[in-house]
Amino acid sequence: MKVRVGIIGATGYTAYEAIRLLLRHPHAEVTAVTSRQDEGLPIAAVHPQLTRLLDLKLEPLEVDSFAERCDVAFCCLPHGASAETVKQLREVNCKVIDFSADFRLSRVAEYETWYGVQHPWPELVGQVAYGLPELFADQIKDADLIANPGCYPTSAIMPLAPLLKAGAIQSGDIIVDSKSGVSGAGRTPKLGTLYCEANESIAPYAIGAHRHQPEMNDIIHRFSGSSTDILFTPHLTPMDRGILSTIYVRPNGVDADAVREIWQSAYRDSPFVRIVDHIPSTKHVAGTNFVDLAVRTAGNRLVVVAAIDNLIKGASGAAVQNLNCIYGWDQTLGLL
Amino acid sequence: MKVRVGIIGATGYTAYEAIRLLLRHPHAEVTAVTSRQDEGLPIAAVHPQLTRLLDLKLEPLEVDSFAERCDVAFCCLPHGASAETVKQLREVNCKVIDFSADFRLSRVAEYETWYGVQHPWPELVGQVAYGLPELFADQIKDADLIANPGCYPTSAIMPLAPLLKAGAIQSGDIIVDSKSGVSGAGRTPKLGTLYCEANESIAPYAIGAHRHQPEMNDIIHRFSGSSTDILFTPHLTPMDRGILSTIYVRPNGVDADAVREIWQSAYRDSPFVRIVDHIPSTKHVAGTNFVDLAVRTAGNRLVVVAAIDNLIKGASGAAVQNLNCIYGWDQTLGLL
Amino acid sequence: MKVRVGIIGATGYTAYEAIRLLLRHPHAEVTAVTSRQDEGLPIAAVHPQLTRLLDLKLEPLEVDSFAERCDVAFCCLPHGASAETVKQLREVNCKVIDFSADFRLSRVAEYETWYGVQHPWPELVGQVAYGLPELFADQIKDADLIANPGCYPTSAIMPLAPLLKAGAIQSGDIIVDSKSGVSGAGRTPKLGTLYCEANESIAPYAIGAHRHQPEMNDIIHRFSGSSTDILFTPHLTPMDRGILSTIYVRPNGVDADAVREIWQSAYRDSPFVRIVDHIPSTKHVAGTNFVDLAVRTAGNRLVVVAAIDNLIKGASGAAVQNLNCIYGWDQTLGLL
Amino acid sequence: MKVRVGIIGATGYTAYEAIRLLLRHPHAEVTAVTSRQDEGLPIAAVHPQLTRLLDLKLEPLEVDSFAERCDVAFCCLPHGASAETVKQLREVNCKVIDFSADFRLSRVAEYETWYGVQHPWPELVGQVAYGLPELFADQIKDADLIANPGCYPTSAIMPLAPLLKAGAIQSGDIIVDSKSGVSGAGRTPKLGTLYCEANESIAPYAIGAHRHQPEMNDIIHRFSGSSTDILFTPHLTPMDRGILSTIYVRPNGVDADAVREIWQSAYRDSPFVRIVDHIPSTKHVAGTNFVDLAVRTAGNRLVVVAAIDNLIKGASGAAVQNLNCIYGWDQTLGLL
């Protein structure tokens, strides 16, 4: 019998992507989709790509009824709202993979500073597994609640964590210059994500002030031991999907080959990490759960390049990978 | 002294394009910009491209004050609202170039059927010059109010009118298959014009039911003598701007050369019509006021191809061209 | 044991797409990839997306050696060259799915007129199964050689064939206005497919003179009984992939509902045909093997809309679907 | 009488853009266009946008005949070839604005290292005015030969030069992370600039090894006094045009306001520099000669953002601006 997954907040891009991946999964199935605003509509009315593929109607979330029909919830609600719902779902024993930022940070104070809301379930903050199986497999295995990582942090933490753990780079001088496709900004109509605003345009936003900066620093800190101070600049890039992070670091006497060896060793058993000699592009990973990593020497710095699909390894693919880990399945099920 | 132009509803794409063109105009200047929703903001706050180029604040429209500072209004309001405002502006003797559809059709009944509102100024319907100087120069010259044409109709009427007038094609069997850039859908945030919806996507909409279909038929009828029945299918195309219309007609014993001769003769004195041998692309006319026309024989049909920039010849360029005509200036001022 | 597939001419977009689909196939595997120009390179050097997914080197085609390692060849060579190779492969009993046009038409004379080359294997012309399983299942089953359909023809034949067979539309008045993503033009560097030429541009090409027009007429004729005269206009559209065909037909007394019923009946057992109420977009079918079909009434015409992914249902997905048919597997293997 | 400009190597994107700008120029006209490969074709055959706008045929360059008909040459040839031609043109007293890199660097040895060719006219290296009128007006005025700056260097030097001159930032720790539209890669068909390769893709290239890195360092050095060591990473971005440079620097005790004041003071009389409070996007400057500059504080760094149109301020607009300077005209002629 298949594991039953319900998607909460099913009208956005990450929700669609999660459904699409789960439709290919041999041991999981989607059994409920919720939405407050589009209640009653068939899922294919909001995602026409799902015509003939998934025959479910959007329903308002009622936790008890939902938990009867779902073993696991993929919770795609905005921060704040998400933690509230996660709490209710956990009380009726539904496992949860939370796409929001609500349980990613270690400290309540930092969460409340950056997200500007009171945390609805502060006692759990710092106790939840961060859903990067390549780095936190032990905590994810057997977890009932997982904080699915942010898209930008995934692209930065994956290359940086092993290097900091090995002491190969300086923790105090790291610049992450990231370029993201527009889907990262969500599906709610806004001026800035209109076609004619985003097309033929690239620009940074929230320079040194994006909420994913503290997430990067928080997670990275667990590997560096010492305090880290990543400077993070995201850029809105005219493409549907993909994140390309160009990362500038100072080596502690290592060269590019040594970096590749550290990665090889750290990710020996990680099927989704590809350490490549060519320079990665978002196109190489589009539609996949891969993280492509490369490194170049430039003057007295190393330049690390990481590419992911923001909707897959940066969101829904990671969620399915976490699902696989929770149930002890092969990490790649539904993802190749 | 320069002619003073005010832009009513100045936050959209056509308004921006009009401002940009007028900034290059030797005899005109922009002296007021209005917006209800963004009142008080500098125009460069909503159109950052205008930084250092135009130092005006958005103001709510007060007709008397506006008319003191503007000789001509470019009215970029939605249909219905526009006619109401046009009426007030005419009462204080401000000339108006109306970007809406409110005065384009000949009959009130048809307007009210297609636009679903009562016309605020029915006695003027059918009396207003249709702003295609290539075809209606006599009516535009000395006009105080001009109905600026729809973007799609411009791309269809320009090639078809001379052919129908010459009896070269059958009026009862015309298909206009048009492809438009996303800017044609306006700047108000909507799901369908989000980058991630419109990008990598082409689709028709309002098949045989778009409001520009009766506009085409109405104007074309003035040339064909007999009733016309254009079938019009617009398509949303993943690009900022441009309209490419592929038009299928039945010749009355003429070939492609004869069509080109009819065009050459009709547009001998029209600086913005280019009859080309190659196949036009929207890219060839982007940023210009040109209409590129070509024709090919295919079986027992002729295939006519017309390309314009929907924001320029399809909207703001036409408005400036009309302004030039009203004031007796060379048609090309500000437009080359 | 898996069926072994070799890809001949493996450096282009359709070849990549075929490999990607076969990697997901439960009963097939890719065992050889050939290329004259890139001989010796790992496949991942020309398709970086395949890094870690397929560990094969590009080899020059030697038929005997190839046939020892491959049960089936996907032949992605250009027309003319393809038939020559197909002949050799058949002589050593390798099954072939031919992506070229060499065996699609019924008559040698027509082939030679449109393709401008002498046919290398004329006695087989007209004897080869046309690879649309939805329409030619009987001929495909047990075939050793299949002519994989052209991308544009697939988008036109799928909606038109059942309607012509049912006598629901007139065969002499059909216009197919198609819009294709740039990948349809192949991966060989040419001016017209450079990013800066194709981006922000839409234009028709080969109006009434494209080689897919006789292919459409040839196949359609088998259903209409009478002679057909499709007028076909392809357009290069600024997107990677997808074909949207807008088809104008004259009904023989049927309405849109009747059309949908004819399709429903004809494609009752076809898992990849979706008859939809909304208007299809290329985005709805991108990355899938679906054909989305819709119809609208417009005046005295019907407007049919068909959307496919040109690289999948229009090429490599069709090839895999044909493979499934040849081996008697479920049509959807590897394709959902 | 107008100044007569000839375009050498007129088939590329920068040449087209130069022609388009000169067509609007009140005191200049294009009197010759050369091309070896397309000799004899009308210019509109290679740039269809110029239909009816410029009636010249492409000719092979014959220096004597060219110089009789042209007062100034815009030389758009590749490096190496360009210096050779520049030498001949100067010998017949034709003024030259050289779009290539041949006369940008100060030292022959560095040129030969980075460009891999022997310099054809080494005695002039280091003697030629670098064509940024905002910084080198004195050298440009009355010059007969100008080295038109590289596109990336313009985006980096403009913000950095005044800051280094003022000692406001550290010269030894500067990272320039640039994102360029595809037109920067030229119009010669290559795999990497095909639509289907560049679309939906962002990737860095030539990390720390691009030829514009020594150009930046060379020019910047003239302002910093001390040696500079810029680390430069260009990225190919899916858009036609525009460069966005995100620049990471270490302040010497200055804050963002101080940076803006230094820029204001340095560029007080520079009509094309806009120091903005919002974050610049390439879209804000597309089609213009503007450089938009902004700065933000982030931790202990300053993040500078510069946006230009790579084909205009990054190439052809700069050339026209230099032309204006040479002839003592207002810098903005033809450029607003």
TrEMBL record, chains A, B, C, D:
The keyword Oxidoreductase applies. The active site is at C151. Its EC number is 1.2.1.38. CDD domains: AGPR_1_C, AGPR_1_N. Residues 4-143 form the Semialdehyde dehydrogenase NAD-binding domain. Keywords: Amino-acid biosynthesis, Arginine biosynthesis, Cytoplasm, NADP, Oxidoreductase. Belongs to the NAGSA dehydrogenase family. Type 1 subfamily. Catalyzes the NADPH-dependent reduction of N-acetyl-5-glutamyl phosphate to yield N-acetyl-L-glutamate 5-semialdehyde. This is N-acetyl-gamma-glutamyl-phosphate reductase. It comes from Rosistilla carotiformis. The gene is argC.
